[in-house]
Amino acid sequence: xxxxxxxxMSFVFALAASAQTPADFVSTRDMERIxxxxxxxxxxxxxxxxxxxxxxxxxxxxxxxxADVMAPVAIAG
Length: 77
Description:
Blueprint (H helix, E strand, L loop, with lengths): L1 H16 L4 H4 L10 H10 L24 H7 L1
């Protein structure tokens, strides 16, 4: 009875240890598509060079950084 439990717990701990970090979850490098928390995790960890777009800069909280330009860009096509 103890052996299956030990094997299961070992598997769970191994799986948790190999879990991806938040920086691995970001699906894009486009700054306007991610929020500041994702950007903070990715830039020092995985990306060395950043191209900073200019334009409206304001705090958006958990909304993506490019919330002001997403609709016009989508409409433009």
